[in-house]
Write a structure and sequence with these properties.
Layout lengths: L4 H5 L1 H13 L8 H13 L3 E4 L6 E6 L2 E12 L26 H17 L4 E9 L7 H7 L2 H4 L4 E9 L6 E2 L3 E4 L1 E10 L3 E2 L9 H11 L1 H7 L6 E10 L5 E2 L2 E10 L2 H21 L3 E10 L2 E3 L1 H15 L4 E2 L11 H7 L2 E9 L26 H17 L3
Parallel strand pairs: 3-4, 3-5, 5-16, 6-15
Antiparallel strand pairs: 1-2, 2-4, 6-16, 7-14, 8-12, 8-13, 9-11, 10-12
The structure holds zinc ion (ZN) (2 copies).
The site of one zinc ion (ZN) has 4 residues, from loops.
Length: about 400
């Protein structure tokens, strides 16, 4: 493994920053303290700093000493999740009901490691933009930064993202050209019937019957309408109706999520859901309202940039540790919005199997969004080195 020596030498400092952020998690668009920590470090290292894009976003601007128009963006996310941490180690969350269970504390720290290195090694031509974004966990902070002028105020040729990946060994990376994460979308179908005595259902219109039929027939979109070669999932995760054993309720509601890798498949699913809902409810005498909310688009890596990232990674960890054809997942990621605007690539950095946690509650699964998760500090020099090498090699391209 070819790590940059200065970053290795700072590993305790960077780990201390990471653990401090872990201990003080902040939710989407509330990353005030985290943004203060990031900005203070950037300024301490002499890096020009812009604040306020997307609310709490921070952009560090590192210009090389040699003249050059080229520019590249590196992005980290800063927000935590509204969940309780189960860990009991010293840096466990001090904020009840908030936790860095997705490793955004580590993402922030890895980009800070790169920032420090770049600030001291400016023998390059061009500009590196260090993007610290709010609200990746459902809030669409990337989109907010873009809407606030991220790419117009800081013109860059390409933008890159990275997420830690539990289960992938430390020292290994995964990526692929094309879709790597799915689109995420939520729906709500409210069925209006006519309540009645449950002993006399003939006097009412039963919305529960419509809900049950819908829950089944909506799956035919996946099995009968979708091209079997296109990945898609439709999960009904909530059904609500009724309050008593002897009452046919007035209403029933179905809620859930749809995930796809392309907008074409998403268009098909949304249209068919609407048709099936309308006609099923009509057939049973019910009315309905249908709401479909598109949250994040699919995260689609650009082929040339994916090939470039894989090459940079092979230079650091060797070809045997870079899988450039990983199977994508049905998780979602708001870096997708940045890849809709700019070429770029999003990679996974292996977080290991949880062996780095040295104390706590009997450990437990070290998975993303799990109460016993922790970011692996061993990744800090590795992720920092990748960011630096990626930026410098991008700017040095002919
Ligand atoms: Zn997450
Ligand atoms: Zn995450």
């Amino acid at each position: 493994m070819k790590l940059l020596e200065p970053i290795v030498a700072w590993r305790q400092d960077i780990a201390a920053i990471r653990r401090d952020i872990h201990a003080h998690p902040e939710l989407a668009f509330e990353e005030f303290r985290t943004a203060d920590v990031v900005a203070a470090k950037l300024q301490e290292w002499g890096i020009e700093t812009d604040r306020g894009l997307g609310g709490t976003g921070v952009v560090g601007i590192v210009r090389g000493n040699r003249p050059g128009e080229r520019a590249v963006g590196l992005r980290a996310d800063m927000d935590a999740l509204p969940m309780q941490e189960a860990n009991t180690f010293a840096h466990a969350s001090r904020h009840e009901g908030k936790m860095h269970a997705c490793g955004h504390d580590g993402h922030t720290a890895m980009l800070l490691a790169a920032a420090r290195y770049l600030s001291q090694h400016r023998d390059f031509a061009g500009t590196v933009y260090l993007i610290f974004q709010p609200a990746e966990e459902g809030g669409g902070g990337a989109k907010r930064m873009i809407d606030d002028g991220l790419f117009t105020r800081f013109p860059m040729e390409a933008v890159f993202g990275m997420h830690n990946w539990p289960g992938l060994p430390v020292g290994a990376f995964g990526l692929t050209a094309g879709p790597i994460m799915a689109s995420s979308n939520e729906f709500s179908i409210v069925i209006k019937g006519k309540g009645s005595h449950a002993g006399m259902p003939n006097l009412g219109i039963d919305p529960v019957m419509a809900a049950v039929q819908l829950a089944q027939s909506l799956q035919t979109i996946i099995t009968r309408n979708r091209n079997p070669l296109d990945a898609a999932v439709l999960s009904i995760t909530q059904i609500h109706a009724g309050s008593a054993d002897n009452v046919v309720p007035n209403h029933a509601e179905l809620r859930g999520t749809v995930r796809t890798f392309t907008l074409e498949v998403l268009d098909l699913i949304e249209r068919r859901m609407q048709e099936i809902s309308r006609h099923t409810c009509a057939a049973l005498g019910c009315e309905m309202t249908f709401e479909f909310h598109r949250n994040y688009p699919p995260t689609i890596n650009h082929a040339d940039e994916a090939a470039f990232c894989a090459e940079v990674l092979r230079g650091i960890v060797g070809a045997e540790n870079v899988n450039d054809h990983v199977q994508p997942t049905m998780g979602a990621e708001d870096f997708a919005f940045m890849l809709q605007e700019k070429p770029g690539c999003y990679v996974w950095i292996g977080n290991g199997a949880g062996e780095h946690r040295d104390s706590g509650h009997g450990l437990g699964p070290c998975m993303l969004h799990n109460g016993s998760y922790d970011f692996n500090d061993e990744l800090l020099p590795l992720g920092g080195t990748y960011w630096v090498q990626l930026a410098l090699q991008w700017l040095a391209r002919p």
